[in-house]
Amino acid sequence: MRLSSLADYAVVMMTAAARHCGGLARVNATGLAQETGVPLPTAQKLVSRLSSAGLIESTRGTGGGFRLSRPPATITLADIIEAVEGPIALTTCVDTAQHDCALDGSCRVKPHWAVVNNAVRGALAGVTLMQLAATTPLVPSAAEERATTDMKVDA
C-alpha cells in the first residue's frame, strides 16, 4: 500500500504552509514549489484540489495566494489524503460507490474490511498537520511500536 505522489506532495505542501505563521499568512504556489521541490504545475493542481476540499482558502491577484482554512491542529493527514485521493478505501468492498468484486456474494472477509479500513483511516486521522509541521519527528507510542514489532514477527 502506497500513497500516490500527488497525495505525498499535498502533505509536503500543506506542512510547509502550516510552518508559515501557522497557516495564517498567505503563501503562493510558486513559493511553496520552490521551497518544497514540488513541480509548479503539480503545486498549482494541488492548490485547486485542496481549495475545493475546503482545506485552504485561495485569493487571486496582487497580494493573493492561499492559507489554511483552519488551524493546523484541526487538519489531519486523512483530510489531506482524502482531498487528493477521495475517500480512503483499502478495497472495493469498503468503497460504497463501487461493487465490482466477483466474490461479492460469497466473500467471508468482506464484513471485516470495514474494521480494517476504519483502523487505517483512524491512524491517518490521528496525525495532525501541526504535528507534521513540528521540527521534531513524531514518536510512535509504545502500543504502536508493539504492533509494528508484532507485524514484523508474523511476516
Topology:
Blueprint: H1 5-19, H2 29-36, H3 40-52, E1 56-59, E2 65-68, H4 77-85, H5 110-125, H6 129-133, H7 142-154
Antiparallel strand pairs: 1-2
Pfam families: Rrf2
Protein name: HTH-type transcriptional regulator CymR
Organism: Sphingomonas mucosissima
Notes on the structure:
- This protein has 155 residues and is mostly helical.
- It has a single domain (5-141), classed as Winged helix-like DNA-binding domain superfamily/Winged helix DNA-binding domain (Arc Repressor Mutant, subunit A, Orthogonal Bundle).
- The chain is built from seven helices and two strands.
- Helix 1 (5-19) crosses helix 3 and helix 2 (29-36) crosses helix 3.
